[in-house]
Amino acid sequence: MFLDINFEANWPLGWQLVIYVVAVALGVFCLVKFCNIFVDAASSIAHKFKIPPMIIGLTVVAMGTSCPELAVSAADSIGALMDGGNANVAMGNVVGSNICNILLVLGFSIIFTPIIVKRDTMKRDFPVLLGASALLVFFGLVFSFNGQYAILRWEGIIYVIFMIAYLTYLVIDAKKHPQEDDGTEIKEYKTWLAILLVIVGAAGVVFGGEAVVFGAKGLALKAAVAAGADEDKVELVLGLTLVAVGTSLPELVTSVIAAKKGQSDMALGNVIGSNIFNIMFVLGIASTINPIVTGDEIVVDLIVMMGVTILLFGIAFITMLRNKEEGTGKLGRAAGFIFVGLYVAYLTYLVLRAFVLK
Length: 358
Prior knowledge:
Elements: H1 13-48, H2 53-65, H3 67-83, H4 90-112, E1 115-118, H5 119-142, E2 144-145, E3 148-151, H6 153-176, H7 191-226, H8 231-240, H9 242-246, H10 249-260, H11 264-289, E4 292-294, H12 298-322, E5 328-331, H13 333-355
Antiparallel strand pairs: 1-5, 2-3, 3-4
Helix pairs in contact: 1-2, 1-7, 1-10, 2-7, 2-11, 3-4, 3-11, 4-10, 4-11, 4-12, 4-13, 5-11, 5-12, 6-11, 7-8, 8-13, 10-11
């Protein structure tokens, strides 16, 4: 986390609580405000250059909202390399984030606004996500490093090559199939200003997510300690839940706002693109720097990640079969509630794993 401030030793409890509350409030404000700026600027770029919003979601928006995962994972690999050890944060960070993106981020997005899934998405993007996820399960469980589950350097290089190839294909495909104007009202910016606002918006979103996690985690720890709970166990559970959700806050707020603004393609593209980016680029870069090792618990998490990815594809595919004439599928509110319910169940499992199953 970027906001790693150690001030508690010298500050009175009252001021500590004030700082945590202000951090949460400031974080929420930044998330909402900068997400609006980010989505509007990205939509303007898509409209100006006739790029489908889905492509913008798969690239610009997905990469921007995945900055926390990239920063945490790369920093862990660099630190482990300098210390002569092995990175162990990136795998859980990426797998947990991908589960959260589908179940929580997409779940909340389609509860607010049902999302139409187009045939191109089913034929082009879902297979890439399924393939990347399956490759991660294969690499993660078959190959080992010093007797532990691991992602090795050569595997990371393969991920990065695949990511570059995928992005190249998206750019070529976007030029071949320019976006037609669908009548959606979009704010227009000059090109240089739109690019600047995308950068500023992404930075603001990342900062907002960090601030919310920093403040909420601090308040939760203080409340737990005051209630007499074991601080180490509380920190473990918070790391599995609040921090995992916190690194996905940029995707969550961006997707919900994009969906509410009528940019449902961008919302779906954000989730699919973020998951592809997390696996191929975040894990690829982190494991290329230094091999990533992880514990036995990752087996269950990888199975859950693969399962929810297949579930998402299956629901979209079934709804598309029911609507053959238009050639589109639909992710409706019922699916959204199912996804969110499954995420609550998964978080419950994580808490039980931390306290009971160890």
